[in-house]
Structure formats: structure tokens, C-alpha cells
Amino acid sequence: QLQLVESGGGLVQPGGSLRLSCAASGFTFYHFAIGWFRQAPGKEREGVSCISGSGSDGWTLHSNSVKGRFTISRDNTKNTAYLHMNSLNVEDTAVYYCAAYIPQYPGCALKPQLWDYWGQGTQVTVSS
After folding, report:
1. Would you list the DSSP string of 52-104?
2. Where does residue 41 rank: exposed (0-12), middle (13-18), buried (19+ CB within 10 A)?
3. Taking a C-beta distance cutoff of 8 angstroms, is the pair 47, 40 a contact?
């Protein structure tokens, strides 16, 4: 059974950092692109970052709102992906989800409707 489990969320002050983890099981991890999405109260789910699977050499994509602050990585030996978040601000407060899919084309895309498998999410709150 395919499963994605997020961890690492919590409360952090503005300007702080967090690292989220996404542990995968039940599928051939390295074949799949992995993405991070977030949803704040009253807002639509938005794509944050994604990293390609096999055949695309770890190609990454970040939304403009996090570019230069967030980094996505993966360790295929541990079936785990990470989202390193720096310089956090209150606008980053949301539930963060990891997701997986096999793209039709090399790379990955930050459109939620393309992604097939989702975790349950982890809360990130940025507040002083």
C-alpha cells in the first residue's frame, strides 16, 4: 500500500528555519517525482517545490514565493524527501503536504491536479 508520511512541522519564529520530511513506502520511490504543496486556511492548495524522479537527474522546481528560501532534496536510499525552509515568514503558515506522481514528461510540475498520491500533511506555523 502506497503511503506518504510527512513530519517536521511545528511553530517557528519569523526568520527561522524548518526541515520537513516525507517518508515513502509501498512503491518504487525513485521512479516518482516528489512535490511539496501547502494550504492555508481559506486558500487553495498551492505548489511549493518539486523534484523529479529517475531519468531527470533530480531536476527541481520552486514557486516564486519560496525561490531562494526553500530547497527540496531526496534520498532514494532512504525513500525520503525533504523540504528545507529558511527565512520563514508568517505568509508561509499552512499545512504542508507531500505528494508523488510519475510525470508524462521529464521534470515535474506544480499543478496539484497532476499528482496522484498524497500524505496527510504537517502544520507549519510562523509566528512571534
Report:
1. --TTTTT-EEE-TTTTTTEEEEEETTTTEEEEEE-S--GGG-EEEEEEEE--S
2. exposed
3. no
- Written as nine digits, the cell of 63 is 514557486
- 2, 10 in Cβ contact below 8 A? no
Longest dimension (CA), the chain: 43
Helix, coil or strand: residue 44? coil
Q: How many residues does the chain have?
A: 128
Q: What is the mean pLDDT of each run of 10 residues along the chain (128 residues)?
A: 96 98 95 97 97 84 98 96 98 98 92 97 98
Indicate the Cα dihedral angle 36, 117, 82, 108, nearest 10°. Answer: -60
What percent helix, strand, coil does the chain show, rounded to 5?
A: 5, 45, 45
Rounded to whole angstroms, how far apart are CA atoms 95 and 40? 6
| Distance in angstroms (rounded) separating the CA atoms of residues 68 and 31 | 27
